């Protein structure tokens, strides 16, 4: 099995994402990061309003990339929030 290298673009992206604090209810920073990255890849990105109206909260991201091949569209869904350990939990 090939070992992961820090200069691998996928590993680098993972480390960058993992370094962004995104506790539940405080996802704004990672949603903004993902919006910029996905738009840079050609995705159309829209956002819903957050449930809580605070500077750190974020709504859902809806991203669309039109394809040019026949076939069934694919839907990918994921969470961007994280669960903090007890010692890292927000008040």
Describe, in short, the structure shown.
This protein is α+β, with helices and mostly antiparallel strands and 91 residues long.
Number of DSSP helical runs: 2
Estimated helix fraction: 25-40%
Report the sheet with the most strands, covering strand number, pairing sense and barrel closure.
Answer: 2 strands, antiparallel
Question: Multimeric state of these chains?
Answer: single chain
Kindly estimate the percentage of residues that lie in beta strands according to DSSP. Answer: 5-15%
Rough outline: globular
Element pattern in H and E: HHEE
As residue ranges, the low-confidence spans are none
Radius of gyration: 16 Å
Q: Could you walk me through the main structural features you see in this protein, from its secondary elements to its overall organization?
A:
By secondary structure, this protein is of the alpha+beta class. It has helices at residues 9-18, 28-40; strands at 44-47, 61-64. The chain has a two-stranded antiparallel sheet with strand order 1-2. The N and C termini lie far apart (42 Å). The model has no long low-confidence stretch (mean pLDDT 86).
Task: State the main characteristics.
alpha+beta, 2 helices, 25% helix
Task: Describe the SSE topology.
Blueprint: H1 9-18, H2 28-40, E1 44-47, E2 61-64
Antiparallel strand pairs: 1-2
């Amino acid at each position: 099995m090939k070992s992961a290298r820090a200069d691998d673009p996928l590993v680098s992206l993972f480390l960058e994402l993992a370094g962004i604090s995104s506790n539940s209810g405080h996802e704004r920073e990672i949603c903004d990061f993902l919006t910029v990255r996905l738009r840079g890849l050609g995705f159309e990105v829209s956002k819903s309003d957050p449930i809580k109206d605070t500077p750190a909260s974020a709504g859902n991201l809806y991203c669309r990339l039109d394809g040019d091949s026949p076939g069934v569209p694919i839907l990918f869904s994921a969470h961007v929030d994280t669960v903090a350990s007890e010692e890292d939990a927000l008040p």
